[in-house]
Amino acid sequence: MAEEYREALLKKDDYYENCPGCQVDQLKELKKGFPFRDLISIWIVVLCTALPISTLFPFLYFMIRDFGIAEREEDIGYYAGYVGSSFMIGRALTSVFWGIVADRYGRKPVILLGTLAVVIFNTLFGLSVNFWMAIITRFLLGSLNGLLGPIKAYAVEIFRAEYQALGLSTVSTAWGIGLIIGPALGGFLAQPAEKYPNLFSKDSLFGRFPYFLPCFCISLFALVVSIVSCWLPETLHVHNEKKTSSNDSYDALEAATGASKGDETRTDDKGRKPSSNESLLKNWPLMSSIIVYCIFSLHDMAYTEIFSLWAESSRKLGGLGYTTEDVGEVLAISGFSLLVFQLSLYPYMERILGPIPVARISAVISILLLSSYPFIAMLSGLGLSILINCASIMKNVFSVSIITGLFILQNNAVDQNQRGAANGISMTGMSLFKAVGPAGGGAM
C-alpha cells in the first residue's frame, strides 16, 4: 500500500524526490491516523511564544519601581510603558521580514530561531539590572521571535486536508492557554524571596533577581521546545524551478477556514502570474480591516498593560493596591474564561448575528465598560474582587470578539480577482496583518 502511494506521488508533475515539502506530502498520504504528534508539536511551539508576552504584566510595576528610575510613584507607569511596548515595536518592525524568510528558507528555521530567542532574551530580561537592559532585551525578544505568522502556514501544511481546521484551532487554543499560564507564572513566581522565604533566601539568585524565576521557568520550557523542534519536518517546497509552497499554503488556509473554489477558478489561478505587492495594498477592504485591526490591537495591548499598572498602584493614586499575586489571579481567570468563550459561546453568537455585528456590539459595550472602572476602584473587599474579575472577563471577551471578526473580514477581503496577488506573497501578507498588533489576545 505504501509503495502504491509513493508511485502515485512520483507520477505527479509537481513532485520532487529531494524536496522537503514533497516528502511531507508523501508522509501525509501514507499516514492515515490521527496526527497527535503534529498537534502536540504545534501546541508547545505556540505556547512557548505566547508565554513571554503576558508574563511580565503582573510584576512590571514593581520591576520599574525597583529600578529606581522613577522619581515619583506617579511616574512608574510612564517608564513601564516603554518596557511593555518594546516587544511589540520589535515585532512590528520585523514580522514582514520573518514572513519573507519563511517563504524563502523554510518554516523550520524561523521556528527554531523564535524559540531560541525566547531562551536567550527572556532569560536576560529576568536578569535585568536596570531600565535600559530591560528595554533592549524585550526589543530583541520581539524582533527575533517571528514565528507567529509562519506557524499558521506550517499548521495547514503539516496536516492532511481533513485535519487542517483542527491544526488552526490548535494554534488559537495554545495561545489561549498561554494567556492563562503566563500571567499566573508572573504573578505567583515573581519576588519569591518575599512570598516563599522558606524556599528562597534573599541572598540566593532568585532573591537578588526577584523577577528572574518566572522568566527562568519559561526559558527552560523554551529550551526543551527548541530541542524538540529540531525533529520537526520542513514543509517548504524547494524545487529547481522558481516555485515555492506559497500557493499551496494559501489554498490550504482557504480550505481550512471554509472557503471553496471551483475547478474553473483553480484553473484561472494557476494560469495567473502573481501580482506585485502593490495590488494587495490597493485592496481597500483588506487594508481597511488591517487599519481597524491595528487600532483595536493598540487598544487591547494598552488595556492589558494599563490594567496591571492601575491595579498595583496605591489607593491614594486611584489604584487598587493589588499585589502581583492578585493581578496574576485576575488575568489567569480572565484567560481561562476567554478560552471557554472561544470554544463554546462565540461560535453560536457568530452564527446568529454574524462576525461583524458581534464586533460592532462588542466595541460599543467596551466603551461603557471601561468608563465604569473608576467607580469600581471606589469599592473594596469581596465586592471589588467580584466586580473587577467580571469586568476583566467581559473586556477580554469583547476584545477577542472584535479581533476575530476582523480576521474573518480580512479573509473575505481577499476576493477571487486578487487571490493571485495574495498567493504570490502568502506569508508576507499574513505577516503584515500580524505585524500591526499583538495577535489579538486569544484570537491568534
Low-pLDDT ranges: 242-246, 259-277, 415-444
Instruction: Summarize the helix and strand pattern as letters.
Output: HHHHHHHHHHHHHHHHHHHHHHH
Largest sheet entry = none
For this structure, the quaternary state is single chain
Alpha-carbon Rg, integer: 23 Å
The end-to-end distance, rounded to whole angstroms, is 39 Å
Number of helices: 23
Helix proportion: over 70%
Strand content: under 5%
Mean pLDDT, to the nearest integer, reads 77
Global geometry: globular
Structural class: mainly alpha
Number of E-type strands? 0
Task: Set down the secondary structure blueprint.
Blueprint (H helix, E strand, L loop, with lengths): L1 H9 L9 H11 L5 H19 L5 H8 L8 H30 L1 H20 L4 H14 L5 H8 L6 H26 L2 H4 L9 H4 L3 H18 L16 H11 L6 H9 L5 H5 L2 H29 L11 H20 L1 H9 L1 H17 L1 H4 L4 H33 L5 H6 L1 H10 L9
Helix pairs in contact: 3-6, 3-9, 3-12, 4-5, 5-6, 5-7, 5-16, 5-23, 6-7, 6-12, 8-9, 8-13, 9-12, 9-13, 9-17, 16-21, 17-21, 18-19, 19-21
Summarize this entry quickly:
The chain is built from 23 helices and no strands. The chain is mainly α and 444 residues long.
Write up this protein.
It is globular and about 70 Å long. Helix content is 73%, strand content 0%. The model is unreliable at 242-246, 259-277 and 415-444 (pLDDT under 50). By secondary structure, it is an all-alpha fold. Helix 9 (164-189) crosses helix 13 (246-256) and helix 18 (345-353) crosses helix 19 (355-371). It has helices spanning 2-10, 20-30, 36-54, 60-67, 76-105, 107-126, 131-144, 150-157, 164-189, 192-195, 205-208, 212-229, 246-256, 263-271, 277-281, 284-312, 324-343, 345-353, 355-371, 373-376, 381-413, 419-424, 426-435. The protein is built from 23 helices and no strands.
